[in-house]
Each structure stands twice: as C-alpha cells, then as structure tokens.
Amino acid sequence: MSSLLHSLLAALFCAAFLQGGFYAQAQLTPDFYSQSCPNVTNIISDILVDAFTSDIRIGASFIRLHFHDCFVNGCDGSLLLDNSATIVSEKEARPNNNSVRGFDVVDRMKAALESICPGVVSCADILTIASERSVFLSGGPEWEVPLGRRDSLLSGGLNIVLPAFFDPLDELKRKFVLVGLNNNTDLVALSGAHTFGRAQCFTFIERLYNFNGTGESDPTLDATFARTLRRLCPIPTDGNTTVFTILTNLDQNTTDAFDNRYFTNLQSNRGLLQSDQELFSTPGADTIEIVNNFASNQTAFFESFVVSMIRMGNLRPLTGNEGEIRSNCRVVNAPPPATITRSSSNELNLVSSI
Predict the structure, then answer these.
(1) Which residues catalyse the reaction (predicted)?
(2) Whole-prediction pTM value?
C-alpha cells in the first residue's frame, strides 16, 4: 500500500472516530479477528486464488455480490440466504436472478473457516474480504478492511431496487444518497468496478436499436462500437430470447484487469451500459470532471475507490449482539425472532449495473 494511500485511510478512520462517524458507530476494525481467527484473510485469499485459476470472472462476481448485499439493508450477508420456510431469497429478485454468482466459492470459504475457527467469521465479512482480495488479485489496490459485521436473520426478498443499468444520472445519484453514499465521488469511483466483468445483452440491447423508444441507437454510443455490439446482440427472431443472455466484456480493452480504462472508455463514448455513459455524457454533470481525473490519473481512481469501498462496506452493518454468525451462509442458524430490532423500508431495499 502506498504511503499516500495509507495516510489518506488513516485520516479517514481518525476523522470518523473523532466525529462519531461510520467507523466508530459501526464498531468495525481491521484487527477484529486478530485473536479469534488470525488467518482469516489468508484462508479466503487462498480459496479465491484457486477459484481464479478456473474462472477469471470470479473477481468481478465478488465485487458484485458485495455491492448487491450492501445496497439492500446494509452489508449483512442477506444476499447469500436461500429460500426457506421463513426466507424469501434475494437471489431470485429481478436484479439478481440468473445474474449474481460465486455462491459456491463463498461456501468453500465458509467451510474452511468453520473448520478452523467455528462460529467466529461472519458471511458478511467473508464477502467484504473477498471483494478487497478480488480487486488486488486483478491488479487493483489493496487496503485494510474494517471487520466485525454480523449476519442478518432476514432477507430483502423479491422487492429490491438497485442502481439500474438504464438509470439516468439523476436517478443514480438519488439511489446513492438514499443509502448513505455521496452522489459524486462515491458514485463515479464505485461505478469504476466495471473496469472488469461481463454484462448480458439484455442490459444494453435497447441502446442499440430503440433507445428511449426512438427506434434509433443511443446517440452517446460510439457508432463503431454500436456496430460491433449489434453483431454480438442481434434483434431476437421467432421468439428466440437466448440472445439476451449472451455475455460481453464491460471493458473491451483490458477485460479482466482492474485499472482505469473504464474511464477512458467513457471519454470515447464506449461505456457499455447507459448508467456508465451517463457519468460522462450528461451535459453539465459534476461527474464529468471526476471521470476525466480518474481517466488521466489511475492512482487518484484507486485511492478514491478504496475510500468509497470502505464507506460502502460500512453501510448499516449489524454489530455487537445484532444478528448472528451463520454456520452456513445459505441458512440462518435459527428461525428469525418475532420482533425485528432494525428497521427496514422498501425505499432502502434499493436491475443493477454495479
């Protein structure tokens, strides 16, 4: 970790503690498992390295799992719950169904940790650590991850709303502010996770043929890039919708590397998703300057990404005696209590482009 980044994070942590901010309130600390499970990061990292060898997409998948978990009632591992007599799983909600992946790797991580330090490491913390390691293993920054989250007894169910691939900039900003993130640097930095990973045709096909009902392609989409995408994603015929599930790279250049090419793509009108291109192509937007900065200065992007990831990881975590430490990330240890101690709202149960 660079000295500049280390100093920046230290200042962030100190300010949050002194002001009673997210870091102090959440009671999270990087050394939370130093005594109870000191090898937790190494165990998760080793399994992740093994997963990378057979599936290079797994890094981006873990970032997406973490985002989709944190944006729905906070970072509490609720996304990992399967359907049961008392749980309606978020996995089958529209933004997640046949989309989020990597649950089998989470199972391996949890089983390994339970064999060494049973009942200690939460599923929510597993997602957080694995996300940081995924970024680092893909060429991005590394950082000390605040830990100590506990697992939810509840799921957000089917009625969840996340920042969507078709959202205009104002709506993206609203959804970020709604969960407690800012609508400029957090929005742009976290969107930069689209520097790796894949997207299905259905997430951008309207931009190619009928943008906003015009019968034309999105004018903010580079014409050459649009032709390439139309060859990949032709208009479905004879009811054949399999085209919608065809995958392409979010970043067509350094496809599996975590770098700042996402932002140079936006400058060239080659952002794959509408929600991406909105950051740069919305006239007069304050996000344009941030995109330009990150495009010209990868270090600035990395530093902002780390700060925003830590902020996102501290969205409404369960700590102390709240929730539980699941022994299996897919199921709660016991039926949920009759009275829920933490409020929930449909508005906070923020189809995702992140």
Answers:
(1) 68 (proton acceptor)
(2) 0.87
